[in-house]
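Inputs:
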Amino acid sequence: MFEARGLMVFYENMLALNNVSLQVEAKRIIGIFGANSAGKSTLMYTLSGIILDMKRKEEMAGGERITVLGQVLLEGQDIMGFKPSRRARQGLVLCPERRRIFPESTVLENLLIGGYLATARQKKETLDYVFQIFPALVPLKNREGGFLSGGEQQMLAIGRALMAQPRILMLDEPLMGLSPLVQAMLVRSIREIRNQRGITILVSEQYARPLIPIIDYGYILENGTAVLEGNRQDLLDNPDVRSAYFGV
Amino acid sequence: MEILVYGIVNSVTLALMALGFTLVYGISGLPNFAHGALYVITGFIVWSLLNTLKVPYLAAVILALLVTGLIGAAIYYFILIRIRGMATSEIIASYAIGLAILEGLRWGGFKGMTYTLPAFIPGSLNLGGVEIDYQRIVVVLLGAAVMGGLWLFTHYNRIGLALRGMAQDERAAMMLGIDSDRMAILSMFLGSVLAGLAAVALLPLGNIVVEAGYNVLIMAIAVCIVGGLGSWVGAVLAAFVIGFAQILTVVYLEPHFQMVVAILAIIVTLILKPSGLFGRQKELEERV
């Protein structure tokens, strides 16, 4: 059970997240939808702890003042004070927006770096699994990450995150900028990962339509506030949501 | 033949001096201007262990490398961690630390020409008509071993791979469970050990003098800028370019132009190709 309670994030005086609470049950796929600057990425950074690193760097440089309030609970334990690396060790792994592949390392090395937390056996097993769900990566094993196409990079980013042995995998805009064909393939893979590995998945997108068939529960973010939540049918039944996020 | 042999020796010397600097910069983006001071301090630690405590040579070397590594890690942990990510402050702080160490050594009485380390293997060898002492051969072998070792470490070792991940995208590495502070401390430790290793190999060829600290720093910076900051392959390549250029000036011009070559290399690189020979990271970014 993974939970966020009353998350508030300020960049200076700008409120980026306003009292957002999430409840994520194990082995579910949770969608987080919202327009640009609705707070999706800030939410992901807050859940994964990256916000703490941003806050620290800004403080040192005398830059923007970032304020973070609220709780992030993993199995009942408040992990808000934990660094990102410690949260990852607890099984909370973020696959970030814009993928952030290591451009000068090969595909295989990217995956091995992802396996930093894994034991040798887990590494081998997960590597086989990644190449099984993303067979397109197999012939690219020795190509540098920077030379992959967007879709290939996204597969690699998800594979790399899987190598870190997540219990909860957070995907920040995994479909951004990809063709509908690749999007459909990735959506299938996301469901497969949940079904075959029992990993809880949080996935954020601007446009909900490609993801709606696979999510168990969803939240709509608007200006940093979770304005609506519900299961697939609840979201589809709301006429505003339908026109704004599903395009139906 | 002379040019070839001494060119190689000189190039490997430069590479040894620069590798520690480029390693730290490559991994944590920290321009460690205390690099030269760490180099010199290793020399004095070895000398002190040998002459005042009568420790065997090999043990003294290993101990000194360890101590230097710890000094580097401590510099990072107690001081530089607070100004992480602010390049100018990092340069000023690390240079100040370097100055304090070097001038502190001078003030403490380590000056003059009396401090020397014995060669590992005394004697010399005739290599195709060129007289070369064993210590210089040791330098070349050690340099090759260090480069090979680093390559293996960063391509096949779990920690080495994590270091490379951090070098490329610190936050992405954090998301995968890599602790960036711990890795930065480790990179500083390794960088300091490499500075020490260079000192141990090179100092038996001359005296241990405080001024060497400044020279080593300038050489390291020259090599790193020509090679492309943070690129290890570039650094090795640049070491050979500058190394041979220096030997050629010594042979065809005058010996005291050696330092000019290094400084000139910095200027020419910054004018013609600011990202250096192997500034690939930047080029890739531009292409994407």
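Chain A has a mean pLDDT of 95. Flag for discussion at group meeting.
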